[in-house]
Design brief:
This protein has about 240 residues and is an alpha+beta fold. It has seven helices and nine strands, in the order ββαβββααβαββαβαα. The strands form three sheets. The chain has a five-stranded mixed sheet, sandwiched between helices. Strands 6-9 form a two-stranded antiparallel sheet.
Length: about 240
């Protein structure tokens, strides 16, 4: 009978020996060792993709820093999570984000800015991402001026949770953004308004409609009236002959 026990990997993180199951990532190993490794794009319930590079660590013998959320632990590795090189990389990423994205509704990222002494004004001539707020449904708004392209909303809308595929990446390079297919309004897409995309957004780029309206100064009764009327129109359109 084959041994069903997973093979153990032995490595050292910040001078501390750690044993993890084969297949564990460096982020898993660091957390097991009680080490705090910052993340932005990573979410415990989403597929790790290594987009933001905030979780980079330094592996002895490696030329490049390794994204801990996707790099697998290997036998005999020696890993450092807070070297000067690692901290400089994380600080620069935060400064670049602050120079181009509205982080006013991203408290976790603001906390990282303070932790790494990041200078939000380091790149004063950077081009800021500017998008009008998209208010096209009764459930939530989309403000892509606050989007850091972490991919969480796309993932939960796809194979990670909902299998609805209403959201995806659009365009390329600096113009990359999250969008619907053919830029259709959300009520014209396959969206079922489950709210999971809003729940995993770390920056307020996706926000509950009622919360957004209250923040703009609208009274509670007007908020309820507006969102309920849009919801009724949506239900009527779904039952109109020819919309099947």
């Amino acid at each position: 009978m084959e041994d069903s026990q997973p093979r153990m990997i032995h490595l050292v993180i910040d001078g501390q020996p750690v044993d993890v199951n084969e297949g564990a990532t460096l982020l898993d190993a660091a957390r097991q060792a009680g080490k705090e490794v910052p993340t932005i794009c990573y979410h415990d319930h989403c597929t790790a993709n290594g987009l933001c590079r905030m979780c980079v660590v330094e592996v002895e013998g490696a030329r490049l820093l390794s994204p801990a959320c996707v790099a697998q632990a290997a036998e005999g590795m020696t890993v450092h999570t807070r070297t000067a090189r690692v901290e400089r990389s994380r600080r620069t990423i935060l400064e670049m984000l602050a120079s181009s994205v509205d982080l006013s509704d991203a408290p976790e990222i603001q906390g990282l800015m303070a932790l790494y002494s990041a200078d939000a004004q380091r790149f004063p001539d950077a081009s800021r991402r500017s998008h009008p707020v998209i208010d096209d449904n009764p459930m939530y708004i989309r403000d892509y001026s606050k989007c850091v392209l972490c991919w969480r909303c796309v993932q939960v809308c796809a194979e990670d949770a909902q299998y609805t595929f209403a959201l995806n990446f659009s365009k390329r390079g600096y113009e990359t953004s999250i969008a619907t297919f053919y830029d259709k309004g959300m009520m014209e897409t396959s969206c079922v308004f489950c709210g999971q995309c809003v729940g995993v957004c770390p920056t307020g780029a996706l926000k509950p409609k009622r919360q957004w309206l209250l923040e703009t100064g609208m009274g509670a009764e007007d908020v309820l009236s507006q969102t309920r009327s849009k919801a009724r129109r949506k239900r009527r359109s779904e039952h109109t002959p020819g919309n099947d």
